[in-house]
Amino acid sequence: MSIKHMARAALAALIAVGLSVAVPLSASAARHSHARERSLDATKPTIVLVHGAWADSGSWNRVIRRLQRDGYTVWAPPNPLMGLATDSATISDFLHTIPGPIVLVGHSYGGEVITNAAYGDSQVQALVYVDAYIPAQGDSLESLTGAGSCFAVPPSDLPNLLNFVPFPGAPSGVVDAYVKQSVFPGCFANGLPAREGAELAATQRPLATNALTDPSGAPAWATIPSWAVVGTADHVIPPADQLSMAHRASATVTEIDAPHLSMVADPRAVTNVIEQAATHTG
């Protein structure tokens, strides 16, 4: 056998030995990983985070990192922002794919969505409202937006705040609404760095205008324990309105010095409240 052939044979033997060792090690690592996941599933609820209007799931990133670090399984599914019935049904269907107890968290309009999505769902054992609408039956975003909100303007002034854009297949009279980039930072992101407010304005997702007047259904908070984070510098939902809704829902309230995007401004405080709620599940 030539030196070249001997070298090839030796290399092949080494590769075979390496594979025979590597496969069991990988399988063993996978077993340990799956065992850890099963352990976490058995001891901690899954956290589901629902974003609000003019936002996306990325608004939860700073909270997600903290929850995952603390051993929670976290999901932040996209909220379609196509109207309350569609949005609530989408989140409700997503919840049905998750085993075990759930802590359901909603920001802003996401609070209205979780109030409807969790109704009658025994897996959802805690609700957390973050600078959120907490509607009773028959309430709407329009009826709950009171004086002091940056959106509390006569209908004729709405074009000064919003850009209206048609979309394919829209119901009659419904369009997508975007917050004007000149308005967004002061309304949603006051207190955040100017660059961050500008980025959030540029990446916002639109809200279909029917969501503004859709009436809310029977509230999940009537039977599910609730927590509320109230940003005392919120310009979208005045803190007094948030407190009124939270007290009506018998929610445990935490007030923090933050704007409407409190999960961006103070993710540690928001995470702490979510984990407080999580300890009351099971």
3D architecture notes:
It is a single chain. This protein is an alpha/beta fold. The chain has helices at residues 3-43, 61-69, 84-95, 109-117, 141-144, 184-188, 194-203, 239-248, 262-265, 267-278; strands at 46-50, 74-75, 102-107, 124-130, 162-165, 176-179, 207-208, 226-231, 252-256. It contains ten helices and nine strands. A six-stranded parallel β-sheet has the order 2-1-3-4-8-9, with helices on both faces. The protein has a three-stranded antiparallel β-sheet with strand order 5-6-7, with no helix packed on it. Strand 8 (226-231), helix 8 (239-248) and strand 9 form a beta-alpha-beta unit.
- What proportion of the residues is helical, as a percent range? 40-55%
Helices, by number, come to: 10
Instruction: Return residue spans where pLDDT drops below 50 for at least 5 consecutive residues.
Output: 1-41
Strand order of the largest sheet: 2-1-3-4-8-9
Number of DSSP strand runs = 9
Order of secondary-structure elements: HEHEHEHEHEEHHEEHEHH
- How far apart are the termini? 69 Å
- Overall mean pLDDT stands at 88
Largest sheet: 6 strands, parallel
The protein's oligomeric status is single chain
**Approximately what portion of the residues adopt beta-strand conformation?**
5-15%
Radius of gyration: 24 Å
Helix/strand-derived class? alpha/beta
The outline comes out as globular
